[in-house]
Amino acid sequence: MVSIVCFCLALTSCGKSPDTTKPAAAQTPAKPVATSTASNAQLDADITQSLSPSVSSAGSLPSVSSRDAALESQADDILAKHRNMLAKDLLNLPEVNESLRNGIKKLAEDKSLQQRITSSVELAAKLKGLEGTPGSVGLDLDTKGYDRAQKSRMLQTVLSEDPKRIVNFIVGEIGEATPELTFGGADRAANGVAIKENTSPAK
């Protein structure tokens, strides 16, 4: 049985930390306060980049298209037929599961997209106060509390079979949950996202 939860955990458990490079701006005589300000600015930039949906090659978010409208209509039809079905069970409907498998296969072939999920999980973990090193944390996405709007968005993502769209969905969920997990101190956010430490067997 394939689910978004399973492949998220698989991806986030084996990623590597993203390379961090310092801005190549010309440096003036350093002062402690200026260095701290630059570091904070860089951290803010890293947070924004890691927890925001990616942009198109043209530098802007994709616009609504006839394809998007068709996906929304398809998702609405499925939800109309299965009004009370949980999100995880919707993923196992034959017409949905085939698209999910195709999307995961495409995602598995793109290391940069996998790394984007991993980086977002690790950053959210660090903001939560966890170690956040490669392999030390994982994403636990519980969809049983999804309402109709969340189910529709999930279905549209899966039915698109677009790995970039799948990554944007997952990263968006992490970004939405991060304030609640960090500042709110919740173990699991209202959208079902939890960032947990992986337990490794004793050697």
Topology, pairings included?
Elements: H1 4-13, H2 32-50, H3 66-81, H4 87-90, H5 94-108, H6 111-128, E1 137-141, H7 148-160, H8 163-182, E2 193-197
Antiparallel strand pairs: 1-2
Helix pairs in contact: 1-6, 3-7, 5-7, 5-8, 6-8
Which key terms come to mind for this protein?
about 200 residues; mainly alpha; two-stranded antiparallel ribbon; 2 strands; disordered N terminus
- Shape label: globular
Order of helices and strands: HHHHHHEHHE
The strand line-up of the biggest sheet is 1-2
End-to-end separation? 31 Å
User: Structural class of the helix and strand makeup?
Assistant: mainly alpha
Largest sheet: 2 strands, antiparallel
Q: What is the averaged pLDDT score?
A: 78
Secondary structure: number of strands? 2
- Our count of helices gives 8
Helicity, as a percent range:
55-70%
Q: What is the percentage of strand-forming residues?
A: under 5%
**Cα gyration radius (Å):** 19 Å
| Low confidence ranges | 1-38, 55-61
Provide a short characterization of the protein structure.
By secondary structure, this protein is mostly helical. The chain has helices at residues 4-13, 32-50, 66-81, 87-90, 94-108, 111-128, 148-160, 163-182; strands at residues 137-141, 193-197.
Structure description:
This protein is globular. It is built from eight helices and two strands. Mean pLDDT is 78; it is low at 1-38 and 55-61. With 203 residues, it is mainly α. A two-stranded antiparallel ribbon has the order 1-2. Helix 1 (4-13) crosses helix 6, helix 3 crosses helix 7 and helix 5 crosses helix 7. The chain has helices at residues 4-13, 32-50, 66-81, 87-90, 94-108, 111-128, 148-160, 163-182; strands at residues 137-141, 193-197.
